[in-house]
Amino acid sequence: MAAYDIVCVAFPSWEGNYVKSTVKLMEELAQRHRILYIDYQYTWKDALMGLFKTTSVPVSRMLGLTSRLREVQVGDATVHVLTPPPVLPVNFLKSTKLYDAIQRLNAGIVLRSIRKAYSTLHIEAPVVINAFNPSLGVPLAGKLSEKSLIYYCYDEISACAWAKDHGARSEVQYSELVDAIIVSSDGLFRSKQRYGKPAFVVNNGVDFNEFQKGYIPIADKPAASVIGYVGSIDSRLDYDLLIKLAQKLLGQKLIMVGRIVYDKPHVEEAVKVLSAMPNVHFTGAKAPHELPYLLAQFNVGLIPFVKNEQTEAIYPMKINEYLAAGLPVVSTDFAPLAAFQEVVAVTTTQEGFITAVQEALQDKSEKEEQRRVALARQHSWQERAHELEAIIEKVIHTPGRHSSPALGSAAQA
Q: Which end of the chain is more exposed for a tag (fewer CB within 10 A), N or C?
């Protein structure tokens, strides 16, 4: 397979205290291709908060006091990460015309920094992957010297609070401009097919070797029973279910690992109720390298999502992380999970979920444990990156695909 440059115009920041599919895929692709990762576009509000130390953001890089372009070592490979200058905040705007006008200004700011990076790295005709950033993608389309333009969608943007006013509209506009759409779940595949562009599924993966560090044979597990959840603690969780589970299983610890996001009003009250329960513990956000050691303490992994439009689009990253650690997994039926039906207990009622957790706590089968581990091994990020590469090759060699003017041409004025 031929090597080519990949420019990822990302919404997720490169660093962070949770696993990001965009970052993991780029890390794997960097083993065979040169990657330029356009980092999260911080605003002037972020910069000011960073200056006053009220939040942690890379102020010196944002302001150009240190180099905006840096090299990040990933194994034996290197990823070039570009921190653009601060842009103007736009998500609070209701006016479509004003939002689009300011986003065009922001795109111009980001584009100038990308051009400088292109010049430094001698990038020509890259594959451009826009990672869940369609509002910036629209004004940048055709201006990045792209040989192919791909939209990577890993969530239902219409259900995201920060994108509620303009996200869905921007996604429709951007989808008209791209060569292909890659999604992370079957639910998203069904949703994005309506745009009429070639659509492909690349499910989330797992850093198998890393999460295997959390594997403890069933025979060696401590007697104490711990049921746990790893992931964002936000409106996607069924808090009524979690409260009933904690009440029913007072003899077991319920550990909630992840950042708490008060994206809807009921989340704060529900977290307060759970926090007051004697057998419930919130750890806060943990860095990815810490997660395997937390999973080693678990006896059962939970996926307690509500069932709605947003969760139907999810392929939960945690499912393979739990399985890599050999854990029995209990889930609600929030989305199709056919690939896991042999090893995951998928339940349709709260009573069924609680019963499945109780049964999982009694699971002492080494054979079933090994089945879980074997399935997770098949879903590594390495395998997902190979799937993505095969799709890119197909898109590049499809007749009639997108083409754009060279960087710096009159079409970009």
A: C
